[in-house]
């Protein structure tokens, strides 16, 4: 069980989603409809355990001195402030938020965190703060936080992290892949310089999701520098070799299709080697925008499978800058990851993405019939077939399921065809005028 509720926040009026019952969820709808707001809210709550880890480390170092010159007097208050700060890093000032705004994430029954806006008067100063961002905890979380006392050694730190993870029942590592990835690939050789040269205030001015993705890229570059196959050899045991090799070979095949070659780092220089030629290459900053856009999605997905990471992955617009056949290939890769113990949430504007996911889900449904299973897998490999898929349409602040009540529970074709329908309607109107013109000339 993991349920997110959003009320009057940004473009979203009302939303209640259970995000624990599927390994793949796709959100579609027009620009500024609320898709990004929803996935960023999910990201915020899924990374609470990482923020707790960082807060515990600070408390372990500073002890009760952490509470000097502050309005909180214990770790619960300190952590509540840390959550408030992180939320504002993601969404900006609370002054523009509705008074009726409410965001709540329930990890398991009665174990929740709620974010609301209120006018708060502080007893110690007498000051009133309008549109104050209040953070409320369900009893299991609050009781846990109130029990945390200094001193904390490394053993205790580990125990507390594990206890909190059990309380919220979240064994996943969460990743957010933001839109606008092209620039990160273009400037990837300068990313480390940017990160080192920026002070904390400058970093806080950056979009938090982008900042975290830059950190992921920096870590992955160090691992991949010795070759992407080195990632595989570091993590996969001999007994699991055949199982993982089949999956990773399929992924490598799709990666080569998408990149039209192979990504390597040679003497610190990032290159795309032309497929089938170990001498011809293109520096990554001269690659196409589509190749730059997907490069670090591909490397991240490969790392997650090769390292056997149980991951919760949010990907914004995986289709950006890609031709339809490449959109099909990237969705095949993402489906492979979803079928390997991970959870995926993706946003999209593309009918090709929605159509590809429908194929993956329908193939899984048809493969239940043993008479045609092998033929199905010849069309859609078993590793790509999706056993579960949730699809939602975001419009006018409301989020509704767009799965049809039919065999296979597929995405409604009217949603898939909506974008092209607008264009086709214009074309029909133009042809009608053309017909009138032709008639008048006769």
Walk me through the structure.
36% of the residues are buried. The chain has one domain. The strands form 3 sheets. It has a 6-stranded mixed sheet, with helices on both faces. The protein is of the alpha/beta class. It has 17 helices and 14 strands. Helices cover 49% and strands 20% of the residues. The radius of gyration is 24 Å and the shape is globular.
**Shape from CA axes?**
globular
Strand content: 15-25%
Class derived from helix and strand content? alpha/beta
Count of β-strands: 14
Average pLDDT, all residues: 87
Give the strand line-up of the largest sheet.
7-11-12-3-13-14
Largest sheet data: 6 strands, mixed
- End-to-end Cα distance, whole Å, is 68 Å
Residue windows where pLDDT falls under 50 for at least 5 positions: none
Number of domains: 1
Rounded to an integer, what's the Rg over CA atoms? Answer: 24 Å
Q: Percent of residues in helical segments?
A: 40-55%
Count of helix runs? 17
What order do the helices and strands come in, and which of them pair?
Layout (H helix, E strand, L loop, with lengths): L2 E7 L2 E7 L5 E6 L5 H12 L1 H15 L12 H17 L10 E7 L2 E11 L6 E10 L1 H8 L7 H15 L4 E5 L4 H5 L1 H10 L2 H6 L2 H17 L3 H8 L5 H19 L1 E6 L2 E6 L6 E3 L5 H18 L4 E6 L7 H15 L4 E6 L2 H16 L6 H7 L10 E6 L2 E4 L11 H4 L1 H24 L1
Parallel strand pairs: 3-12, 3-13, 7-11, 11-12
Antiparallel strand pairs: 1-2, 1-4, 4-5, 5-6, 8-9, 9-10, 13-14
Helix pairs in contact: 2-3, 2-5, 7-9, 9-12, 11-12, 11-13, 12-13, 13-14
Key phrases:
20% strand; globular; single chain; 5-stranded antiparallel sheet; 442 residues
């Amino acid at each position: 069980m993991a349920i997110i509720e959003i009320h009057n926040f940004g473009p979203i009026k009302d939303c209640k989603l259970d995000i624990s019952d599927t390994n793949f969820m796709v959100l579609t709808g027009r620009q500024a409809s609320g898709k990004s707001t929803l996935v960023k809210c999910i990201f915020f709550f899924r990374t609470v355990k990482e923020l707790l880890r960082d807060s515990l480390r600070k408390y372990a170092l500073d002890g009760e001195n952490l509470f000097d010159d502050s309005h909180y007097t214990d770790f619960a208050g300190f952590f509540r402030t840390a959550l408030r700060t992180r939320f504002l890093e993601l969404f900006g000032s609370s002054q523009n938020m509705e008074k009726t705004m409410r965001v709540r994430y329930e990890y398991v029954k009665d174990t929740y965190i709620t974010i609301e806006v209120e006018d708060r008067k502080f007893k110690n100063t007498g000051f009133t703060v309008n549109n104050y961002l209040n953070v409320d905890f369900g009893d299991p979380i609050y009781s846990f936080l109130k029990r945390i006392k200094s001193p904390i050694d490394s053993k205790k730190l580990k125990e507390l992290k594990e206890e909190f993870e059990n309380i919220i029942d979240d064994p996943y590592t969460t990743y957010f892949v933001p839109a606008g990835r092209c620039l990160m690939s273009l400037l990837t050789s300068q990313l480390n310089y940017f990160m080192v040269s920026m002070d904390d205030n400058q970093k806080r001015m950056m979009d938090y999701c982008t900042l975290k993705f830059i950190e992921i890229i920096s870590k992955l570059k160090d691992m991949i520098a010795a070759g992407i196959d080195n990632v595989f050899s570091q993590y996969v045991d001999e007994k699991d070799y055949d199982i993982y090799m089949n999956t990773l070979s399929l992924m490598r095949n799709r990666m080569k299709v998408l990149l039209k070659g192979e990504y390597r780092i040679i003497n610190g220089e990032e290159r795309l080697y032309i497929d089938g030629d170990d001498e011809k290459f293109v520096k990554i900053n001269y690659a196409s925008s589509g190749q730059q856009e997907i490069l670090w999605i591909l490397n991240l997905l490969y790392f997650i499978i090769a390292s056997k990471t149980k991951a919760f992955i949010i990907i914004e617009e995986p289709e950006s800058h890609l031709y339809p056949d490449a959109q099909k290939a990237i969705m095949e890769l993402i489906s492979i990851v979803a079928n390997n113990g991970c959870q995926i949430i993706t946003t999209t504007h593309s009918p090709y993405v929605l159509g590809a996911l429908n194929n993956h889900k329908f193939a899984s449904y048809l493969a239940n019939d043993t008479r045609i299973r092998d033929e199905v897998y010849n069309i859609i490999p078993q590793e790509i077939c999706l056993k579960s898929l949730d699809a939602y349409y975001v419009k006018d602040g409301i989020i509704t399921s767009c799965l049809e009540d039919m065999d296979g529970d597929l995405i409604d074709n009217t949603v898939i065809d909506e974008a092209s329908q607008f264009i086709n309607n214009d074309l029909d109107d133009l042809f009608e005028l053309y017909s009138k013109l032709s008639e008048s000339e006769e």
